Amino acid sequence: MPDIKLPTSTDQTTESPSDNGKNIIKKKVPKIHFDLPPQIQNQHQSLNNARANKQITRNDNMLFPGFDSPQVIRSLNSPSPSSVGNREKVRLAPHHSALDWEKFKHENNVKMIDPSSFPLRITKGELSKHTHPKDCWVALGGKIYNISSYLDFHPGGVNILVKFAGKDCTSIFMKYHRWVNFERILDECFIGFLV
Ligand code: HEM
Questions:
Q1: Does residue 2 sit within a domain?
Q2: pTM of the prediction?
């Protein structure tokens, strides 16, 4: 646990932000002083420098992200604003958000199998034949999904996903994002069981 001292209130006062010159309400609020661990102090120092150099700007009406939120810290530490760590962030095509997917999957036949044969019993051998983006099956948690329609909606991008076409991607899925509820996202893509 970092050694964080409790805040102490000093006699100093500061003014609260105004609302762009209109109906200015100036309140005197006590200035609170925190003794932070050196590592966090350095992080705040680099944020203050970035703000002074206009590397980051913040408008007072902007509630998110906060000035020293993890999003701002992460983007300052990243080599480019569009990357996370060393990995490029994928830009999805317009109308390919999670909400768009919810709509799309209910309005289209995303299973792409004969409904009379549902649910299928699929062997590893059969699974391995479905590797084309237009016929892309994966096994996840013992179930088989036809993810052809989902590919363009995947926040991690198409390329990373098609590498696992025709395969069991359970362990890699868990490695990247075990918090993602695939059974809910892919409910309409469920075509059968891995046997
Ligand atoms: C087939 C089922 C899959 C579904 C339903 C799915 C869904 C998702 C979702 C919802 C996110 C956003 C997560 C978040 O923001 O917290 C995501 C991100 C991501 N996924 Fe998947 N995924 C699947 C498979 C995979 C596989 C097999 C891989 C890797 C081989 C993968 C790699 C990634 C990566 C790298 C991201 C990160 C994107 C980022 O941080 O910008 N996904 N995926």
A1: no
A2: 0.66
